[in-house]
Every structure is written in C-alpha cells, then in structure tokens.
Amino acid sequence: MIKVLFVCLGNICRSPLAEAIFDQKIKAAGIEDHFKSDSAGTSDFHIGELPDERTINCAKKFNLPVNHRGRQVNRTDFRDFDYILAMDENNLRNLNNLKVRFGFADKEIHLLRNFVPNSEVLSVPDPYYGTEDGFEEIYHILNEAVDHFLVTIQERHQLYA
Predict the structure, then answer these.
(1) Structurally, how many domains does the chain consist of?
(2) Pairing of strands 35-41, 83-86
(3) Structural domain for 136, as ranges
(4) Would you say the pTM of this structure is higher than 0.85?
(5) Which of 17, 24, 68, 82 sits most deeply, having the most CB atoms within 10 A of its CB?
C-alpha cells in the first residue's frame, strides 16, 4: 500500500482538493487498491471543519467527491506516509521543521509541483482570500500536478491497471 499525504496550511482548500483529484485519478486508472491518501494542514486553524465552501463548490463542478474534515499534521504522518506533498514553500518549511522535531529528519518531503516538468512556479497559491475563480484556477494547477505525480509513482512502483 502506497500512502500519500497532501499538505497545505489549514487543510480546507488546496490539500483536500488535491486529495480528491488524486483519488479520482487512481480510481479511473483502476489502481485505487494500491493507495491510501489523506490530507492535512500544518496549522491548527480548521481542525474538524469541513472544507471551505468554495472548495466544495469547485469539487462539485468537476464531479469530485470530497469527504474530509480538517486536521493537523502529526508525528505519525511522518512514519506512516510514503509521500508527503506540500503545496507551497511555507508548508514545506513547516513540514521540514516538524520532521526534525518528531525524529524523522531523513524523511523526504516534496512540493507537489516539483513533479511538473519545467514548472517555473513550484508553489500552489493559496486561494483562501480570493474568489471562486481562484479555486477553479487551483483545481487546474492541482490537476496537472497530480497527473505528473501519478505518472512518476506509477513508474517508480510499476503500477499499471
């Protein structure tokens, strides 16, 4: 079982949307039995909350089921997940600090957009303070990045339907 964790700041916008996109893609590829996915935030701002209403609306527009409650990254995440994917540089920095504090200094953490070849921008912008349009833009960014990530891990783990 390959375990993938998507991480943003509050776990109500980018990371639950990335998780939903990933789940839809692995199901469409017929390889969902090989994966477990989740999402979390580096902050404790929205623990237990549903995703932002704009995230839910965006997901509905693209027929993505979103079934998630906000949670904060914890020590066991560093032990349990094979891939931890941060949405931006601040999340990456926070995760790198946490992994050292929790005793997982060697754990690899990636920016999700690192998997997009020739990407000039590596951060997924936070749409929280914007409008519905920003969430749709984030959907397209995440959709592309998840595609490239999935190709990488399918090749790495030789997973094909």
Answers:
(1) 1
(2) unpaired
(3) 2-20+38-157
(4) yes
(5) 17
Structure tokens at 127: 């749409």
DSSP state of 50: P
Catalytic (active-site) positions: 8, 14, 126
User: Nearest-CA neighbor of 156 among 37, 24, 35?
Assistant: 35
Strands 2-8 and 83-86: parallel
The reply to whether 142 falls in a domain is yes
- pLDDT, tens digit, 9 for 90 and up, residues 120-157: 999 999 999 999 899 999 999 999 999 999 999 999 99
pLDDT reported for residue 160 = 72
Residues 6+ apart with CB under 8 A from 9: 41, 42, 43, 45, 87, 90, 91, 126, 128
CATH number at 48 reads: 3.40.50.2300
Q: Helix and strand tally (H, E) in the chain?
A: 5, 4
108 lies in some domain = yes
